[in-house]
Specification:
By secondary structure, the protein is α+β, with helices and mostly antiparallel strands. Helices cover about 15% and strands about 40% of the residues.
Length: about 500
């Protein structure tokens, strides 16, 4: 008979879990494990209960050309039928394929990265967020080992990718999901993809049968984990990018209906050893987590702010100094969101006009856009819908670098500007040539806008300095970029 009361408590608690499992299980997904853990109250004892619903049957990677690059089965229940179902879904059109769907008692989950589909299947209903998180981490791990994730790169590093998949999961459960944990178990050396092939836009190249052009691989696309020879030649450097995605809705009178920014600080670590980082932000950064009323001023007022587990922040409500112990590879150090006119200024000012032409069935559309930015805005694309009865357009653009075209298939007009200089204004006029009855103003628009801004952030976030500590032998190189891109930017015309 056991006299130790602690052992008795453990056995009774374990027996109770097996007979009467709790209705709600708190799922804890860390970098090291993907198991469901039941903790016995008041006892430092864990029982890892592996639920069949948490298992992933298979993972495969498919290109846009419907070519299966790699396929890994983790359970005996998987077969090629699930892969064939997914490929058939893609043939019907990407717009009909949801990132989570069920077919033939199989649950499909996928993400699309770099023109590749990362797909996982389960034979039971599993939390979609969990499986998407697993696929996202797998993508980042492969990117760390291969440098760049593309169809050519995966073909050249097929053996390495299979090694990663073998160690990443075991019997459908994640066992190693970080680059540091996987590195000792990977024996293959990455093959560096030195050229990225992209379709050329030069018509003269197509005349002579040259359909591809080669671009040198950027430094940030080199593998983090390399052979000893490559590792000795690798530069001691770190890349820090502040990227913001803008979501906005502008009314026809120019007023702002919605304006929101989602930002992320992304770090790619090539530093030798394991040095400590100290990143210093603006002095005026504050986080107003539960405040609906914002004050006007020079402060950078964040709605939400989340940090990576490797970051240490003394004051989360005023994150001015970040102490980071970065791991090897690429990771998101900080994610934040900002909303409201008091915190963000619209990057553009719009004036539009949609008026019928007298004694004609045609209609005149005028778009005027003015930049409020201190830096140029590039790759500006404005697309708006027109009635199907519009057979052609006549246009007036104020710069030879601009172009516009009527896309009859989807009934839209695309206005493209290569560059919009800082504080500059651009105007475009379109006459909609109509072949049927009168046009309605409500049938024109709205304008969906895409743009890229380099060297400027709408939220006002800045990095004052990046310090690398505990490195005395060599001076590391530090690269910093500010990037703003459109996520969903809409301008109403009427």
């Amino acid at each position: 008979m056991m006299s130790n009361p602690l052992k008795i408590i453990k056995i009774l608690s374990l027996f109770n879990l097996l007979i009467n499992p709790p209705s709600h299980v708190e799922f804890s997904f860390s970098y090291e494990t993907c198991e469901t853990c039941y903790k016995i109250p008041d006892v430092n004892f864990y029982f890892h209960f592996i639920d069949a619903k948490m298992k992933v049957d298979e993972i495969f990677i498919v290109s846009e050309r419907l070519v299966t690059i790699v396929h890994k089965c983790y359970t005996l229940s998987c077969n090629n039928s699930a892969r064939d179902i997914f490929l058939e879904k893609l043939k019907k059109g990407e717009h009909q394929t949801l990132p989570y769907f069920t077919d033939d008692n199989t649950w499909f989950h996928f993400i699309k990265r770099e023109k590749l589909y990362f797909v996982a299947t389960t034979n039971k209903d599993t939390s979609p967020i969990l499986v998407i998180e697993i696929l996202t981490r797998l993508y980042h791990v492969i990117k760390d080992f291969c440098g760049v994730v593309s169809e050519d790169s995966l073909h050249e590093n097929l053996l390495l990718v299979m090694e990663v998949l073998n160690e990443f999961m075991d019997f459908g459960l994640v066992q190693l999901s970080t680059t540091e944990k996987l590195q000792p178990h990977i024996q293959s050396t990455p093959v560096l993809t030195r050229f990225n092939r992209q379709p050329t836009q030069d018509i003269t190249s197509r005349v002579f049968g040259i359909e591809k052009k080669s671009l040198p691989t950027p430094v940030t696309d080199t593998p983090v984990i390399s052979s000893s020879v490559i590792k000795d030649k690798r530069k001691n450097e770190i890349f820090v990018d502040l990227i913001e995605r803008v979501t906005g809705v502008i009314n026809a009178d120019g007023s702002i209906s919605r304006l929101e920014v989602n930002g992320a600080m992304k770090v790619k670590n090539f530093l030798h050893g394991s040095p400590q980082l100290k990143i210093i932000l603006n002095d005026n950064v504050i986080v107003q987590r539960n405040s609906r009323i914002k004050a006007y001023g020079d402060n950078v007022q964040l709605d939400t702010c989340v940090f990576h587990e490797s970051a240490k922040v003394d004051n989360p409500d005023s994150p001015q100094v970040l102490t980071v112990y970065p791991h090897i590879g690429e990771f998101t150090l900080m994610s934040y969101s900002v909303s409201g006119e008091s915190s963000i200024t619209s990057p553009f000012h719009f004036v539009s006009s949609v008026q019928p032409i007298e004694q004609s069935r045609d209609m005149m559309v005028t778009l005027r856009i003015k930049s409020r930015l201190p830096v140029p805005c590039v790759n500006v694309r404005l697309k708006f819908g027109v009635p199907r009865s519009v057979s052609n357009i006549s246009q007036h653009l104020d710069s030879p670098d601009q172009s516009a075209a009527l896309e009859k298939n989807d009934g839209t007009i695309l206005w493209t500007l290569k560059t919009l200089p800082p504080q500059a204004e651009s105007v475009a006029q379109f006459r909609l040539i109509n072949q049927s009855g009168p046009l309605n103003r409500e049938d024109v628009g709205p304008v969906r806008m895409k743009f890229e801004i380099s060297g400027c952030l709408l939220s006002g976030m800045k990095i004052k300095t990046v310090k690398v500590l505990n490195q005395e032998q060599t001076t590391p190189q530090k690269w910093l970029r500010y990037i703003t891109v459109s996520d969903s930017f809409l301008v109403k015309l009427v």
